[in-house]
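Researcher: Going back to the complex we discussed earlier. I've cleaned up the inputs and rechecked each line, so this should be the final set. Can you rerun the prediction on the complete assembly and write out the structure?
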Amino acid sequence: MTTKSNAHAGHIVPLWVYLTVGGGLFILTGITVAVSFIPLGGWNVVVALGIATLKATLVALFFMHLLYDKKIFLVVFLLAILFVGIFIIFTMFDTMRRDDIYEGAGRPIKPNAAMYDRMQTAGDSTAVTHGEAHESTADTVGNEENTEH
Amino acid sequence: MSDAEGRPAYLAHHFSEAEQQRESAKLGMWIFLLTEVLLFGGLFCAYAIFRSWNPDMFYNAHKFLDVKLGALNTIVLISSSVTMALAIHNIQLGKRKISIGFLVTTLVFAAVFLTIKYFEYSHKFHVGQLPGKYYTFTGIQGDNPHIFFSVYFAMTGLHGLHVIAGMIAISWVLVKTIRNRFSPEYYTPMEMTGLYWHLVDLIWIFLFPLLYLIG
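Model: Rerun complete. Updated structure for the full complex:
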């Protein structure tokens, strides 16, 4: 019984695998910090997320044993990522494309949040610094009224 | 540690063998981790929406996060993941004392992470870089910079709570290991805690570039 359950107690990953993966994660952290200081325009976020995904893959496959365990656990994990992906991408289809339907009226939010208006009426010190912002808010409100006519 | 039928004490009566018990626990843990990914997914979605609406403000606001402290915390958390993996590796080999040492090291790394986070948070509280209506800082160009800090505190705050939960789980496993409850045949609670801890690390791996390293 003892020998049998011993064989079932799980795959033992060699020590060097953990140390190599750990070292790889440190190096990738250094690379992602270094690359972030190189201006690549829109590619910065792509590179940063690419490296983060590579690091996450290393953690999941080796530290979380997905490479060695039954593949059902890998399927559960990939399902989680799939659903988060659907969630974010379909939300972005909406929020990025509202303007295409209602020209101008589909603006996501006012240039400044309503809390700045309340700060203005309260007359506290922060209202002065956001005075300029408040004017632009007033402009937007005016524009909305114009479009309604 | 086995009864008259030769079943080990750790094997619950409704499982026919240890492997079945172990894989059931693991499947349950992975489904729990799935819900955790979805929980953070909501915040990642909020991040994506607000960043796509305010790209310039996000760029300007992220300059007020300390990349050095963020990178240091990334190194600390990856190190803690390595030591957690090594704690499990050593209990698999029956080296209980070395395993205890690595569990303690993991807890120390987690505490270092939270301490660095505390210094970052207290600086932001001090200068007024706070969420929503509590935002009083005036040095950031762009509309609604408080939104960046709402997202920052929501994401790192929820992650911080997970670090604390992980520390509680690791402490529980540490006590069990000290009381000699684990062996190369049975160490499932330590393995499940390890999975949870690696997920906490994995989420930080995405939080760090998204918050600290915006182009």
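Model: Worth noting: Chain A touches chain B through 64 residues (CB under 8 Å).
Researcher: Good, that matches what I expected from the previous run.
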